[in-house]
Fold each of these.
Amino acid sequence: MASPREPNERLRALISETGLSGDALARLVKRVAAERGERLQTNKSTVSQWISGRQPSGNTAAYLAEALSRALRGRVVTPTEIGLPEHAAPTPDWHTDTLTALAELGRADVHMERRRALGMTVYSVAALGLPDQQWWDRMADSASARRDRSTRRVGPGDLDAVRDMTAMFSTVDQRRGGAHAWTAVVQYLTTDVTAYLHGGFTDDRVRRGLFTTAAELAYLAGWMAFDSGRHAVAQHYFTQAVKLAAEAGDAPMAAHVLRAMAHQAIDLGHPDEALGLAAASVAGDRYRLATPRERALLGVVHARSLAAAGRRHAAGKALLRAEDDLASAHPDIGEPDRVFFFGEASLAHETACALRDMGDLDASVREFRRSVRTRRSATFTRTHAVTLGYLGAVHARMKNIDEACATWSKALDAMEGVRSGRTRQAAAEMRSLLSPYRRRGTRATGEVDARAAAYLSATT
């Protein structure tokens, strides 16, 4: 750990690598803190003091590390890497008893101070390595061993109630973003649903159904945290969701979560780990037993991970397979509720992201436009706003600034009432891409820049 009397050269080097000024880094640290519910007073002078060896107080070291990670495009920087203290908090563990870990996670998250401590946990790349087949077998055995330990009987009506609540929370997330109702999701999962999981079941169908639905709810808690930019928290819930799916013996449900973990790893700049997770999601029974719509979802994220890893040919083949899988979906085929959002618009969005990452910007624009055209924006408001934000960014990369501004104006319209880390990121990217035009720009660039700034300020 750096001495208070010695300059922190590692921190100085990382700040230089980001290219950020002291003022810009201070603003980014304040933004990260605000997303965690804390207000900081940091400025250029504060950053200079950190470089000279002064230790940040409280949670600031973790906020600084997160800010540097974002500035370095998702490369994970830990507080200890820059010679600073950090909260000691557990990383995701595949081997702790599922229900014990779930209850502990809930106790941490429903109390503000412990929730903040958990929020400081570093996203763990090491935890992305998946357990071996023996682990999956043991999880199925542990599910059998825990049956009928309680006098409480859990029947089909209880299962239906949990499914209804999960569907309701999913709908809110799709419309309003992950920052809405996250605490309610966690409380319901770790109190009512966990109590059901400890109960005795009327039959094995109910047991498996409840563990699968609990996995969906844990996944949703993780996805909402991911959407809010709280990646370490998301990783904990994703891990629990995989474990619940394993106890349910539900291979496609496990695949659904692994796909989300791959998506997160792509966004955080870990293409190799993302590809490993995505490949696992389409392996064996996880893909074979999935319905066509879910196969398409798994497949298109696999394609994105291949694109991120630089495997263009394989990514193209995976995109074609995902298109074929979605074309095979039919109303008579019962699809799980968790894929209610995935259709042509979502497939086009993910395809556009893959094409963008492969450098085919013209094709990316075409697919983003298809996504915008085919989406029910009133139902899937958050994703609609993100799609428009991404489309505008591609236009900007192609130097079509007028088209970018027109698209971003629509994105900002859609962001009204949405609280999401991804919409905030889209708005921040608007301002970044418009910065070269700020002094010599048109009225349209000025209006979009001002609206994006106002949105970021209002959602702090």
Note: The longest strand covers residues 153-154.
Amino acid sequence: MLSKLNVIWIDAVTCYGCTHSFLNYKEISSLFEKVNFEYHPLFLSNDLEIKQCDLLIVEGALKNNYPRLGYSLNELISKLFFKAKKVLALGTCAVYGGMFGEGLMYNKEQKGHYYKCRDKIINLPGCPPHPDWIAFVLDMISENKKIALDDLNRPKDIFAYTSHMGCTRNEYFEWKIDAENFGTKEGCLFYFQGCQGPFTHSSCNKVLWNEVSSKPRAGTPCFGCTEPNFPKNDLFKTDTFMGIPANIPLGVSKRAYLTLSGIAKSLNNERLSCKLINYKCGDNNEDK
């Protein structure tokens, strides 16, 4: 039987959203059978010791001269970083810096303080990350399995997708039929509401939140919270130039996008257009 994974979880500049997400993991009791938290600021655990561990988890951004447990934050992270076998940057603040400071490996889109040590870092962005993502990483490390990472050190099993994949509004996106307001059941949220799903690496529409929903399913655009440029200016706006989106969905050339968009608009999918019109008029029944 494998020994438990010894973990030290440090709170940097954080709102504790990642911790609260983790505590919502549906099988958390079985996870505690595999993981021993030597320290966590909110769990019942021992006082922090500067010691070796299998995994150091950093939740939150780094910030100079920020006091933490008798050290400056950056000094504390440095002391623990080099004693850990692996380091998990948990959440967008720890990965990219978010709004408050800088991340372990990145400072927004620039190289961060620990970039040269990237071989021992796993990045798990999200504001917050899905609890299943956190459990996946802990399971893989506890079972001594290799985690395939992308070019930003994010697990490919989670971030090889875009948030757009699995979105229930994809057909509206393809036919360029847009919702004009938040909270609607029908219509695409990309053009008018600033949805970042086509540019955002995540499995949010494949691994649903609370096993039932996601932002687009609830009528709210994807904010792109797993990407280095989060939060972007004008969060609910799609930048356009002469009516054309400034950014084109990942993997599609601008020429191909414009060609397909023109064809879709000229053909006019009456079934989807009627669904959107009926929804606006208060008739939420599916078309027969």
Note: The CA atoms of residues 102 and 217 lie 32 Å apart.
Amino acid sequence: MSAELLNKAREGDRDAFSQLVEAHYDFIHAIAWRWCGVAGDAEDIAQEACIRMARAIRDFKGQSGLKTWLYTLTLNVVRDHQRQMARRRRDENRLASDPVFLAERETPDGAAEEWLWAAVRTLPDKQRDAVLLVHAEGLNHAAAADVLGCSEKTISWHLHDARKRLKDLLKREAV
């Protein structure tokens, strides 16, 4: 890899950056694959690493080798992905054991499901939107946050509040 190509990419030359990505994509993908072991995830991680590389290439000072820098950048993406997957599994496990959402699966005629979605539509706007995006549309917290223009933590908070309200409604309905 020529220093000239790297310098052009750092200065914003798109063609040079494209050549840089092409030259190193297999390396980035191989790191992602070794660390996560899932083909689809490795592809997502490699693509995200390239996006981050585009954002950070101007700050690359050359104090370490380019491959060392790419390795570090890719591992950071892998770690972020692993944290996101752990949060998703935790949320799915919590949801699977949540009595409000379990009720949805308990009646064969769908009455509980109808009641649940009707109750969701009565929630305050932000809570309703978070529940619908995550549980009805299947978006992860990051994607829902992008849609609503807020942080993932805000989505989690809205979902937490929505669960509390729905549990209260379920208790009142049972009485």
Note: The mean pLDDT is 84.
